Amino acid sequence: MVDTTITRPLANYHSSVWGDYFLSYTPQLTEISSQEKLELEELKEKVGQMLVETPDNSTQKLVLIDTIQRLGVAYHFENEIKTSIQNIFEEFEQNKNEDNNDDLCVVALRFRLVRRQRHYMSSDVFKKFINDDGKFKETLTKDVQGLLSLYEATHLRVHREEILEEALSFTVTHLKSMSSKLDNSRKAQVSEALFQPIHTNVPRVVARKYIRIYENIVSHDDLLLKFAKLDFHILQKMHQRELSELTRWWKDLDHSNKYPYARDKLVECYFWATGVYFGPQYKRARRTLTKLIVIITITDDLYDAYATYDELVPYTDAVERCDISAMDLISSYMRPLYQVLLDYFDEMEEELTKDGKAHYVYYAKIEMNKWIKSYLKEAEWLKDGIIPKCEEYKRNATITVSNQMILITCLIVAGEFISNETFEWMINESLVAPASSLINRLKDDIIGHEHEQQREHGASFIECYMKEYRASKQEAYVEARRQIANAWKHINTDYLHATQVPTFVLEPALNLSRLVDILQEDDFTDSQNFLKDTITLLFVDSVNSTSCG
C-alpha cells in the first residue's frame, strides 16, 4: 500500500491522447494483400532500373538519389546508392582542379549526398561562390533552389568550417525574405526546410511530408511517386498492426491502477522506436525499444514526480541487482514496475540466447545500472537543495536522459553481429553517443524548463547555468542552443572520420538526436499538439488522402 500521509511532488500529467485507439487496427484491417506486395516488387524493380541506367556523372543521378532518399524508399537501394555516391566522389576527387560547375544547387546537393554517405568532401567547394570580402555573392540571392540546396548542405558541417557557418546565416536570411514571393510549390519547400532541415529531421516524417510536396512539383516522376506512396502505405499498415499488439500489452499492464503517477505514453514511445528503426526487418527491435522506453518513462515519473528519497534508495539497489529476490525490499506499489523490468530482461535474454548473443545482455544491464544510479543522484541533489555546476550537472544528466542506454539497446536488437570492441567503442570512445545524449538532455531542458519548475523538481541546465554564471534565463537558453549546435558537429565528425565503424552502428545516435530535435514547445510530456499531429501523419492518415497536415 502507498503511504497517503507522504507529500509527493505530483506532476498531474494529462491523460493519454490515444487511449485504446490503435486496438481497432485488427490483423484483418492491417493485412497487406498479395496484390500490393506484387505491385511493390514490380515498381521497385523499375525504380532500381532507373537508378542503374542514369549515369553517375550526371546531375540527373544526384537529383534521383536525393528524391529517392527524401521519399523514404532509399532503404530498398542501399548498395546501389552507396556505389553511385562512391563513384561520384572518386570522380570529383580525381578532377576537382578542373571542376568548373558553378551551379550552386548541384554543387551543394553533391556535397550533401557525398558527406551523408560518409565521404569527406571539403567545404572549399563553396569558395567559388564567395566575393573577395569573404561574403557570398549577391547574385545568388535570386537562385531559390541554389539557396535551398546550400542551406540543406550546411547542416552536415563539422567544427571550424566558417564558410558553412556563413552559408547558414546567408541562406536563412534570404530564404525567409523571399518566402512570401514564391509560388505555392516553392513556398512549401522553403517553409518545410526552414522549419526542419532534412539532416536533423526524422526520416519517416521527411518521407510523409515530401510525398505531398513532390506530388505538387510539375516535373515529378509518376512511377517514383506511386512507388513511394505504396511503400509508405504498406509500412504504415505494418506499424498499425504493431501498435495494436503493443496497446494490448500496455492494457494488460493495467497502467491506470498500477502506475497512476506516470505518463500514459505507449504510442509516443512507439513513435520513438520507429524513429530509430522503421524498416520491415526491425519489427522485433521496435517492440523491444518500445517496451524499454515505456519502462524509462514510468521510472522517470517514479523518481521525478512521485516516490520519496527513502523509497528510491532500495529501489535503485533492486534495479542494480535485477533479481526477483530483491522484490521484498521495495515498496509494494513499486513492485509491478520492477516485475515489468525483470520480464523485459528475461524476454531479451531468451531471444538473444536463440541467436547465440546472450552475452549482449551484459551491456544492457551495465547501462541500466548507470542510468538508475544517475536518477538517485538527481533525487539526492533535490533532497539537499543542491544546484550543481554546469559540468557536474551534464555529467549526470546526460545519463538520466537514458539516451546511451537506448543506443546500446539499439545495437543489441539490430539483428547484426556486434563485437565487444564495438560496444566498448560506443560507450567509451565515440563522439556520437555523448553528443546525442547532450542534444537530448539540453533540448529536453529547454522545452520542459517552465513546466517542471512549477512543482518541486531538480534543477535543469537552465537553472545551473543561471546560478553559476549569474546569467539571465535567455542567456542560458542561448548557451544551451550553442552546445546543441556543437554536438551536431560532433555527430557529423564521427560519421566522416570513424571509418572503422559500420553506419548501422552510428545511425541510431543520429536518429535519436533527430527525434528530440523535431520536438517543439510541447514535448514528449505534453504531446497534445505537434507530436499528436506528427503521429497522426505517420500512423493514422492515409498517404492517399487529399490532405497532408
Beginning-to-end CA distance, first to last residue: 46 Å
* Continuous helix count: 23
- Helix content, binned percent: 55-70%
Radius of gyration: 24 Å
Organism: Solanum commersonii (Commerson's wild potato)
Pfam families: Terpene_synth, Terpene_synth_C
Keywords: Metal-binding
GO molecular function: magnesium ion binding; terpene synthase activity
Structure description:
Residues 17-194 form the Terpene synthase N-terminal domain. This is Sesquiterpene synthase. InterPro entries: Isoprenoid_synthase_dom_sf, Terpene_cyclase-like_1_C, Terpene_cyclase_plant_C1, Terpene_synth_N, Terpene_synth_N_sf, Terpene_synthase-like, Terpene_synthase_metal-bd, Terpenoid_cyclase/PrenylTrfase. One of its GO terms (molecular function) is terpene synthase activity. Residues 251-489 form the Terpene synthase metal-binding domain. The longest helix is centred in the middle third of the chain and has 31 residues, at 222-252. Helix 5 packs parallel to helix 7 (184-195), helix 11 packs across helix 12 (283-305) and helix 15 packs across helix 16. It contains 23 helices and no strands. By secondary structure, the chain is mainly alpha-helical. The radius of gyration is 24 Å and the shape is globular. It has helices at residues 34-53, 59-70, 78-95, 104-116, 144-154, 162-178, 184-195, 203-215, 222-252, 255-258, 266-276, 283-305, 309-321, 335-354, 360-383, 390-400, 403-413, 420-428, 432-452, 461-469, 473-497, 503-517, 530-539. The mean pLDDT is 93. 64% of the residues lie in helices and 0% in strands.
